[in-house]
């Protein structure tokens, strides 16, 4: 039995932190997992910047409300889900992801949780499990699934490499150069073709 595991940001929706960086005028917040392999380090740095500027969860959610899926993403996901099981594995947070899942037709997503103070400031975050994407793929394999994975960032490499088939989608030139063994594509049509070939 197959299950397709997809990253969210950069694959199905634009990068939330980049959108918020543009909306807030804080260029430092453009840094993502495409640039920084250590997710904890990245998040601690982001939370420090938010505190410094007095920005809370509602400020970010206002930006998220303006974000739409990448053109073609919902049709791709609808087609994929009509042919096989699919799940989104993301290092984002439920408080960020919920409105985006609505726009994508409510697919299943496993992600993390923010800790928010009474004043609306983000005080921390709870990671679902260590190396969450790789751990989830291994857990799915342990209960009889063959996984196929696709993502664009450093934090997707574990699940891609551990799956029976894995693909880079709209990734960076550096990641593609570092991992020439991983098939890479730029369009949903090509990604669907790669996934179908692995089913």
Architecture overview:
This protein has a domain at 2-13 and 69-112 and 127-198: 3-Layer(aba) Sandwich (Rossmann fold). The protein has a seven-stranded mixed sheet with strand order 4-3-2-1-5-6-7, sandwiched between helices. Strand 3 (109-116) and strand 4 (122-126) form a beta hairpin. Helix 3 packs parallel to helix 5. The mean pLDDT is 95. The N and C termini lie close together (9 Å). It has nine helices and seven strands, in the order E-H-H-H-H-E-H-E-E-H-E-H-E-H-E-H. It has 199 residues and is an alpha/beta fold. It has helices at residues 16-24, 39-53, 57-64, 73-83, 94-103, 132-142, 157-162, 173-178, 188-198, and strands at residues 2-6, 85-93, 109-116, 122-126, 146-151, 165-169, 184-185. It is globular. Helices cover 44% and strands 20% of the residues.
Task: Provide keyphrases for this structure.
single chain, alpha/beta, Rossmann fold, 9 helices
Question: Per DSSP, what share of the residues sits in E-state strands of 2 or more residues?
Answer: 15-25%
Q: CATH homologous superfamily name of the domain at 2-13 and 69-112 and 127-198?
A: HAD superfamily/HAD-like
What percent of residues adopt helix (DSSP H or I)?
Answer: 40-55%
Under the CATH scheme, the architecture of the domain at 2-13 and 69-112 and 127-198 is 3-Layer(aba) Sandwich
**CATH class division of the domain at 2-13 and 69-112 and 127-198:** Alpha Beta
Please tell me the overall pLDDT. Answer: 95
Q: Strand tally, please?
A: 7
The largest sheet, given as strand count, sense and whether it forms a barrel, is: 7 strands, mixed
Structural class estimated from helices and strands:
alpha/beta
Q: What is the topology, as strand order, of the major beta sheet?
A: 4-3-2-1-5-6-7
In angstroms, what is the radius of gyration? 16 Å
Low-confidence stretches: none
State the separation between the terminal residues, measured CA to CA: 9 Å
General form: globular
CATH topology of the domain at 2-13 and 69-112 and 127-198: Rossmann fold
Q: Secondary-structure element order, as H and E?
A: EHHHHEHEEHEHEHEH
The number of helices is: 9
